[in-house]
Each structure stands twice: as C-alpha cells, then as structure tokens.
Amino acid sequence: MNKDAYPVTPAVRVLRAHKVDFLPHLYSYEEHGGTAVSSDALNVPEHQVIKTLIMEDEDKVPLIVLMHGDKEVSTKTLARFLHKKTIQPCDPAVAQKHSGYQVGGTSPLGTKKTMPVYMEKTIAALPILYINGGKRGFLVSLTPKDLIRLVNPILVEAAV
Fold first, then answer.
1. Which fold has domain 10-156?
2. Using one digit for the tens of pLDDT, what is the confidence trace for 114-145?
C-alpha cells in the first residue's frame, strides 16, 4: 500500500515514532457495524479485531479497555478487579474528549489524555491483531508484543 494511501493519525504517528512494523487496512465503515463489519471486510477472524473502549469508574475517571471483537466486557468483573463500585462505558462525547478520537475510530495509541489501559489477557496470545488506527474505517495490524510495548497494559480477565 502506498504510504500516502492511508490517514496519518496520532496513532500512526506513534507507530512510526516507535518504529513498529504495521500494516494499514481501510474498509467501508458502517455506523453501529462494530467489529463484525471490519472483520468481514478484511476477511480476518473477529476474535483478532480488538475493540478500544473508553470507560469510566464511579468517580468519572476514564480508562481504556481492549477486548476481542467477538467478546463483551464484564464491567462487574472489571470493577471488582479494580476495587471500584462501578465501571461503565463513557458517553460518546466524553469518550471523544478523553481520547481525541471519534467513537468508532478510537485507538489506544496517541490518545489526547493519558489513561490506564486494561487488556484482555488472551489478546497477548494472538499471532497478529487488528486495532483501530485512529479513524473510522481504518485498522492497523501489528503483533500483540508491539502493542503491549506501546501501551503497557494491565492484563485482565473480563471477557464474556
């Protein structure tokens, strides 16, 4: 793919700055299509497409959760792990304020605000993963090892 054929987002700048080998993948974004649309478009297992979710605790402190596309986050399990009363998804406008990315195009890389990252531990075992590159309809593929090096996540077991 031509170097100029994909968007240069804050996430792409982070990948380039850290000399990470990645491949850009553009697809036709569908509102509320989720990871099923991107996995179909790229012909990859939805389990390898990783969602970036901006959530918050009861004190409105934001955090990032990385989860397999074919799984959901048990917010109760995550809250227990974090010793919090509740964890819930942020309102889309609040999530955008924290991340700097539009919902549906949120990447854990190059966020506007530094937030702790919690990653489902089984993501680390994938051979390759596909994660949002910072724009709707744009994923990047890279190794879990590189993602872990960049975002330094806390590994959790919160998938359902």
1. YbaK protein (3.90.960)
2. 999 999 999 999 999 999 999 999 999 999 99
Q: What confidence tens digit (pLDDT) does each residue in 74-103 have?
A: 999 999 999 999 999 999 999 999 999 999
Contact 15, 136 (CB under 8 A): no
Strand partners, 49: 130
Closest CA to 133 of 29, 61, 2: 29
Q: Write out the chain in H/E/C secondary structure.
A: CCCCCCCCCHHHHHHHHCCCCCEEEECCCCCCCHHHHHHHHHCCCHHHEEEEEEEEECCCCEEEEEEECCCCECHHHHHHHHCCCCEEECCHHHHHHHHCCCCCCCCCCCCCCCCCEEEEHHHHHCCCEEEEEEECCEEEEECHHHHHHHHCCEEECCEC
Q: For residue 121, which of 150, 88, 142, 144 has the smallest C-alpha distance?
A: 144
CA–CA gap between residue 21 and residue 35 (Å, rounded): 22
